[in-house]
Predict the structure of glucan endo-1,3-beta-D-glucosidase.
Amino acid sequence: MPTTFLFSSIFIICLALFSLADGGSIGVNYGRTAGDLPSAFKVVKLLKSQGITRVKVYDTDPAVLKSLSGSNIKVTVNLPNQLLSAAAKKPSFANKWIQRNILAYYPHTQIESIAVGNEVFVDPSNTTSFLIPAIKNIHKSLVKYKLDSVIKLSSPIALSALQNSYPSSAGSFKPELIEPVFKPLLQFLRKTGSYLMVNAYPFFAYESNADVISLDYALFRQNDGVVDAGNGLRYFNLFDAQIDAVFAAMSALKYDDVPLVVSETGWPSKGDDNEIGSTLENAAAYNGNLIKRILNGGGTPLKPKANLTVFLFALFNENKKPGPVSERNYGLFYPDMKPVYNIPFTVEGLKNFREETGTGKGERVEGSGSGRVWCVAKEDVGKDRLQAGLDYACGEGGADCRPIQPGATCYDPNELKAHASYAFNSYYQKMGRAAGACYFGGAGVVVTQRPRFGKCEFPTGY
């Protein structure tokens, strides 16, 4: 076999994205705008049974915080928007809030961060001007009680805070928010070793642009990817593109060293007729593939070493939320604690997870009824690309290429396309059939019929 490694930057990105090294972390948002939810005690049992080790709440409800005591679940609490004015104007209010809502529970309840406000830039009450003073006063209180080194402060922003988000390399914050909010906020986050919280919903972008955004691209499924003309990076999913737009906006202000946490993301399992893509199958695909993507490690194309912490929205369907049908159907579980759809939340659970890919309308697309897929070399892509992909798969990619060595079971037919197909598939199956793992510079394609070259049978997994 050739050992020359003529690998492009695209392959490097792919490897970084789907490395099985230490991965990120998955948490859930525990919203309670509903009238039929189980007790907080039962909810904690549910979280533990699913292996969920992080939870984010939208207040500091005593029943919830007491129930989480001793659970070893890390908690993010929220100072609501309606309290920002008081926290900004009165240091004494900040002190009392910390005493009542943090000191009363910590450390038995493992509060790891406080979200000060939530999407304040779109708050109809116009609370933006209070954000930075409120954060500073809350931080002074944490310092007073010697908790500033263990409890981080941040404020979740919506993607609407961006002036530009496409392409990712052009990401920038709205000019009117830069001086009064983002520069002091990012400076505070850098100084305190905290992170920017971002609420990112690829569903909204897909719903509004379904004519130009591929559903596979939105759901982390196999696709050819989209090249960002500004930086030359290839994106295989909309989530990465949105997050890198925020990273680019931070970098434009010289704060590219500040980490990022995805404080909300999700996909509705039901919606109004005009809410394109809001189906149970798509919700399961998005959240299941996102979890796989995060726990398997690797950051984004722009930040390949940034293992992300991501909080899914939301734990339950919330029947009292206003707005379209989708707003009441983001839940991973029904109020009776039965899953809306089955997805794993842990690395162990991922071992047996395989998304049942479909059309988004409940139809399963499967080869010969098996639901299995393989990666093979495309027709007419040229010998150079086939050879480069083969070299990568059998070299740095770590595919099992022993069967295509001279004299081995899959050496015949001794043809470049046959050998490349075997190597591509070996790598693809090794990577858990992750989105982008069958790209190979455009030389690979996913098929639903088991490929055959001579007497060689292609494996379906490891």
